[in-house]
Amino acid sequence: MTLDKLKIGQEAIITSVGGEGLLRRRLLDMGLTPKTRVVIRKKAPMGDPIELRLRGYELSIRLEDAEKIQCDIVSEERGVGK
After folding, report:
1. Is position 82 within any domain?
2. Interior CA angle at 5 toward 26 and 62, to 5°?
3. Peptide bond connecting 49 to the previous residue in cis, omega within 30 degrees of 0
4. Total of domains in the chain
5. How far is CA 18 from CA 8, 14, 46, 77, 79, in A?
C-alpha cells in the first residue's frame, strides 16, 4: 500500500521509498526512510497535502509524493494527538 491511501489515524511502517534523483533524495532527507513508523494526522480540506507524524515531528507532504512511498499498516486508528 502507498502512504497516500492511508486514512487519518492509521499507523504504518515505511517499506520502500520510490521516485528518482532529487525527489527521492528529498524524501529520504525529510526522514521518510524504510522501517520508519508514521501516523497520518491530518488531511487538507481538498485532501492535499497530508500531515504525517514521524520521528517526533510533524511533516506535510503532497499526495503526489506520498504515492511514491510504500508502507505496511500497523494499526487502523490511533488517537490523532497521541
Report:
1. no
2. 35
3. yes
4. 1
5. 22, 11, 24, 25, 29
